[in-house]
Amino acid sequence: FSSHRAALSFFSRFSLLLLDLEEYYFEQHTAYHVSGGSKKERKIRGSFKVCSRSIIFDPEDLAEPILKVCFNGAKKITFELEVWNKTEDVVQTLLQVCGCFTIAANLQSRLARSSFDKNCFQSVAEKPHMECAVEMVMPLVSNPGHVCITDENLYFQPLNGYPEHVIQIKLHRVRRIYKRRHGLRPLGLEVFCTENDFCSDIYLKFYNTADRDEIYYYIATFLENHVTEHTAESYMLQWQRGHLSNYQYLLHLNNLADRSCNDLSQYPVFPWVVADYSSAQLDMTNAASFRDLSKPVGALNKERLDRLLARYRGMPEPRFLYGSHYSSPGYVLFYLVRVAPEHMLCLQNGRYDHADRMFNSVGETWKNCLEGATDFKELIPEFYGHDSSFLENRLSLDLGQKQNGNLVDGVVLPPWASDAGDFLQKHKAALESQYVSEHLHEWIDLVFGFKQRGSEAVAAQNVFHPLTYEGGIDCDSIEDTDQRIAMLTQILEFGQTPKQLFTSPHPQRITPRFQNITRSPSINSPASDMSPASPTEDSSFEDLTEESRKLAWTNIGIRSRPFNYSTLKMFSKELKDFQRSMSFSNMALSSCLMLADGKTVVCSSWDNNVYFYSVPYGRRQDTLMGHDDAVSDMCWFDDRLYTASWDSTVKVWQCASDSLSSHKRSQFELLAELEHDAGVNTVALNPAGTLLVSGCKDGTVTIWDTGSYGALQQVHCHDGTIHHASFSPDSRHVLSVGADSCMKVIDVQTGMVMSSVKAEEEQRCFCWDGSSVLCGGQSGDLVLWDLLSNTVTQRIPAHSGAVTAMWMSELCTTVITGGEDRQMILWKLQS
């Protein structure tokens, strides 16, 4: 290892020596290692580092070896500090370190005795918001210190002063932030200052979730002019329509599933897509050139799968099909050994793996994944990127000699690749090919979706060891500290299954339909990547249509007009024309409402936010970042905002309507959080504001008391998603419609289903007066139902796509409908 130290950074060299996951580096001093007798005394200058379990001496001369002296097996080694008056301080530090019963106690003691040095602020005018103890997470190294956030900057000051005395990130440069699981606990926060989804600027691990969330939401208030956090469903829609490449989409899903290049146990995972590594040419028009993406790697070879299934059937609970995971620190470093040798040396106790087991050939690795008894690994993003250094031995590392006498050097590439760069170019083209685009959703079902766990995973031969799943092992319930650390270490080394992002089958990409759409490339995206058009551009205003219908319902004559799904647009009923538009984000707006003063419009969005828009001033007044998933619906009563979300909650906020323009988060006070078992799709209040009804994706209707925030009734009445639910004018009943094409009337007092009607098609929205219901259907028609006789009294052609939204005036004289045909139509009721 000594011969390669010059090629490695300090933290790269240092991580090699921190072989324990709980080893921390506290401080360093310039010192001399004294060896030899009194006559032949030899002094070697270097860095003397105090750690939680050992002392490390890193010589300046790269030809000299690094010394590590563990406290539990120390022998006499002499060091002299260059600054003599520091000797007493170092001795006291060593006594404190050795005197602590546990590493955690030692670390917390040191953190408690120190604080962030506010002399490091860039400006005397900065106002600190909060400070707390954290650890900066890097591959195989966690560096403890203090984080401090002000109104201008995020600072991290490590206890040991490395890699810098203070790391500073300007808040206005932050582009994205993500909450992370770290060690299967919700303690991580990753901050990105670039549009590159792969590598972050800093990854912090907090000691409690509340501190993490406080800093997350504070930073989020600075993001509204730059970027909005997306959901898996929103990225899915963009990918389906061709707005995201397969590579971009997989990076986004990995990000949302807590995968990070700073955490080797949760490194981003990508699929093998090519199955032909022997032909002279890679034929991307031949399906045989590609891997079957509907099966996990372990199920691709039928003979091997039969042997695994036989063992599985005879195994006691908890049973698992595969004894190793498809992504683990060992597999990641297997691929990256040529660019991160120090990490491999750390995992292998200072040695490389046997030369014949190294990453020698792409084709041989694929073959072993098909035939090996315990090898089920997938790939990493580097295989579809632009940097080929992980395939080449640019550091001239001595990686050993194979049994055939050949030295391990660069990776042997398939015949169809002329060099490493050509391999990556063709490999990425395969990822973006027609075949993979049509089948990638099947692999997503296995890794991020509904086939990841449970009975669907069993049916798909996709069952891994319980250690790899969140909730599979509860480390916090293990009282013995050493056993808990040992179990956590085992989990981290074994690899972790990504967070489940989808619970229903992932839709297929609709490539042909959207390939010819003209889009403006994003400023920060390569021209070759397909990016959505800028939300501020709108060419749809030129194509206007006149509508005229002479039925029981008649169009009032205003021109209907296509609208952008992420833009708020305002029309004048009197002038019968478009007035203005406002884009809040590049995500869909799910609902909007006008406050009683007529001056403020509130919009909810799939980007997890609620936006407040001033009608008189024509600009956004404020943003409420209140949920961890898309905000699906909302309602307002008496300065209280009720927001429903796919994160399985309804939140109640106290909002001072007369101070919405103050631009302060503090004005939104969270009064209650109503928990559900599934994502909430719809929410509505009764006329008096005393009752709330919510409808979920699992078909459950819940009625709540808005005074106590307690659940009064919970009724599972639909098979599938509930689209819309609402109270009758007298608050005695609730009507709901769902994906099962049923309409259900529920008695509020008893919770009984009073009436159930099966419609000919799925109903998406409705207005009702307690006895008659005007519904908007999947076909685009408006259907008038008489609930007393359960019959359709009238059907009115309306939209060319599903009717998704409907509003009726209090006097029941005017109706507005919106549909998937991007049209909004105003109707007048004739007597």
From TrEMBL:
It comes from the Eukaryota. Keywords: Repeat, WD repeat. Residues 224-509 form the BEACH domain. The keyword Membrane does not apply. SUPFAM superfamilies: BEACH domain, PH domain-like, WD40 repeat-like. Residues 517-538 have a biased composition (Polar residues). Residues 517-542 are annotated as: Disordered. SMART domains: Beach, WD40. WD repeats lie at residues 624-654, 673-714, 715-756, 796-831. Residues 123-220 form the BEACH-type PH domain. This is Neutral sphingomyelinase activation associated factor. Coiled coil: none annotated.
